[in-house]
Structure formats: C-alpha cells, structure tokens
Amino acid sequence: MYSLLLALIYIAFMSLGLPDSLLGSGWPVIHNDLNVPISFMGIISMVISGGTIVSSLLSDKLTRKLGTRILTVISVFLTAIALFGFSFSNQFGMLIVFAIPYGLGAGAIDAALNNYVALHYTSKLMSCLHCFWGVGTIVSPFVMSYALTNSTWNNGYRVVGFIQLGIGLLLLATLPVWKANRQNVEDNAKSIGLIGALKIKGVPSFLIGFFAYCAAEATAMYWASTYLVEVKGITTERAAQFGSLFYIGLTVGRFLSGFIMDKLGDRKMIILGTSILSCGVISLLIPTGNPIVPLVGFIIIGFGCAPIYPCIIHSTPNNFGEENSGAIIGIQMASAYVGSTFIPPLFGLLGTLISFAILPMYLSVFIIIMISMTELTFRITTKKGGEV
Fold first, then answer.
1. What average pLDDT does this structure show over 93-116?
2. Residue 70: which CATH number?
3. Which of 81, 190, 318, 388 has a 20 to 30 Å separation from 100 between CA atoms?
4. How many C-beta neighbours within 10 Å does residue 25 have?
5. Which pLDDT value is given to residue 204?
6. Distance between terminal CA atoms of the chain?
C-alpha cells in the first residue's frame, strides 16, 4: 500500500507538469489561429499564475477541510476541465476563462502534494517527485508536435485533457490507498494562517530565498535560447534545438541527486546545488567562440538547480514544525509563482534596454539572495532546535 500510494502521488504530480509546457509549444500556431499578437501569451500566463497564487495561499485551509487525497482529485479534474476548455476554444477570451480553473487546480496540487511528501517521505523521494513533474513537461511538447503535424493545436490539448481525466479517475478509484499514511496533523491541527506563518522566526527569510531561487530558475528556462542567439551567435534553429538542455539537466539532476540526498541532508544539498549552479553561470561568461561552452553551461545550471527546490520544500517541516508546514508550504508555492511570473519579464525588459549579455549577472543576484536567505533561515531554526 505504501509503495502504491507513492506511485499514485508521482502520477498526480506528473499531471501537474503535463499542461505546463503545452501553451509555449503550441502558441506560435495558436496566436495565428485566434488572430492575436504573439505577446498575448503573457496574458494567459498571468491569469494562470494568478490562479495558482490564490489556490496556493488557500491550500492549507482546503487540505485541512478536505484532506490531501480529496483536494488532489478535485484539482486534477479541475485542470482536466480547463484543458478540454482550451481544446474547444476558438476565441482568445475563452482561453482566458479556462485559464482560471487551470491555475486554481495547479496551485492546489502543487502545494498539497509537496506538503504531503515533505511530511511522510524522505528527501530522495521528494526529489523523485519533482522528476515526475519534469517527465510531464517533456511529454506534452511531443503530444502538441504530433497534433500540429497531423491535425490542430486543439487536439493537442484534447489528448492531454483525456490523459488528465484518466489520471483523475485513477486517483478517484484508489482513494482508500491514501489510508496507508495517517496524517493527524493535516486533519486535526488548527491552521495558523498567513499572518501567523509570517510571524514565525525564519519564515520571511525562507520565503525570500525561495522566491529568489524560482526567479533565477524561471529566468534561465525562458531566456536560454535568446541568450544563445543574441549573445553567443548561435543560430535560431540550433538554439531552439538545444533550448531544452536546461530541462534535461534539471530532470537528470533530480534523479541522480536523489541517491545522495538522504546522506547529505537538505541543507548540504542546497549548498552543493548552489555551487554547481554558480559554476554553470560562470561558464556563460567565458569569452569563447565555441558554442559548446554555453550549451554545456546551461546543462550545468539545470543540474545545479535540481536539488534546491525539493530540498527547500522538504526541509520546511523540520525547520518550522509539522503542524505549520501546510500553511508555510502554501505560502512558499505562492512566492515561487510570483518569482517565476514577474522576474523573467523584467529581465526581458532590461535585456532589451541594455543587453541580453547581462543574464549571468542577473542570475547571480538572485542566486546570492537565495543562498544567503536560506542559510540565514537554517541558522535561525538550528538555534531553535531545528534539524539540518
């Protein structure tokens, strides 16, 4: 039962990644079909992010009221409805409408499952959880590519919608399996709420650190191809071909780092990841005409990022107590979405006004903020008796 439950959690988290890369892979065709500017993808992304922020902040109360298993099932069905809505959309306004349930469902799944795994499973299994998110993001572009080649983008969303519906039905049919873990904290403890969580020593710095990490990660994800073209002189075709290198480094890194996480612990893994990440950023500054150097650099950046996100989440119950982790992780998810939503566009503006060559320096600022704030948190919680 224990292993089956873990498998179900992984499948549910893969369902979170499935829709994430659909919009970007299909948008070059979608915006033409709907006769809207290419920049309008940002509007949809903002609506989705707004929904995820709201549901992340409410996730603790919803989890305590419904339980993780019920909330997860509802959220998966909510995202399935959104995907089917996208598949039938023939106007931009319809995409905006269905972006709302998509964002609400995604945020609830993210916060609830991260908290559940942080409470019940090891760092290694937390890392594997985020590997499955990566699997979902890798699968969807192939589905959309096939749909664009053989039919329309609508069918790409429809296929993923059916996959999401199947996952939802599987989770619904296996609800009793969740009894393998009893979580009295989740069901009985009183929610401390947003204000109460922020009053806990170390929480504000932890949130700032997580915000900074997600800002750096998202900026590297979104602007890698542009940096390769504008700064390193790599052709657009080759840059697009290698644009997934960051994701490959991230997914492979999370798989491999899982083997040593339990031995080193969350704090040391965050430091190790930051060190590797910094090496990748420094490699981008090497003045060479060899395109292999920056390509490898982005793989190293992704590899370094791999353990940081899951280890920050997994350390939350140890740092602040199991009874508070649900509320704090919900706020962490919200801070993550704020960082990943607003900081990459800011770099785009600065890159246009100054130069896209500032990417390594831009990333370095957020990396320094991240490691300094997380280390400050660990020092505070260690003095209070928290584990590292």
1. 90
2. 1.20.1250.20
3. 190
4. 20
5. 95
6. 30
Domain membership flag for residue 388:
no
Among candidate residues 84, 55, 71, 102, the one with its CA nearest the CA of residue 9:
71
Q: Could you tell me which residues come within 8 angstroms of residue 316 by beta carbon, excluding any fewer than 6 positions away? A: 115, 118, 206, 325, 328, 329, 332
Claim to verify: residue 168 and residue 98 sit in the same structural domain: yes
Q: Are residues 168 and 237 in the same domain?
A: no
Residue 113 has pLDDT above 90, yes or no: no
Burial label, 211 (beta-carbon count in 10 A; 0-12, 13-18, 19+): buried
Residues 51 and 79 in one domain: yes
Are 171 and 211 members of one domain? no
Do 63 and 119 share a domain, yes or no? yes
Side chain identity at residue 375, one-letter code: E
Q: Put residue 132 in one of left, alpha, beta given phi > 0 → left and psi -120 to 50 → alpha.
A: alpha
Q: What range defines the domain where residue 373 resides? A: 195-383
User: Is 337 contained in some domain?
Assistant: yes
- Pairwise CA distance, residues 146 & 54, whole Å: 34
**Global pTM?**
0.81
Task: Give Cα separations from 65 to 69, 191, 260 (angstroms).
Answer: 11, 10, 36
CA dist., res. 130 & res. 126, Å (int): 7
Provide the residue type at 228 as one letter. L
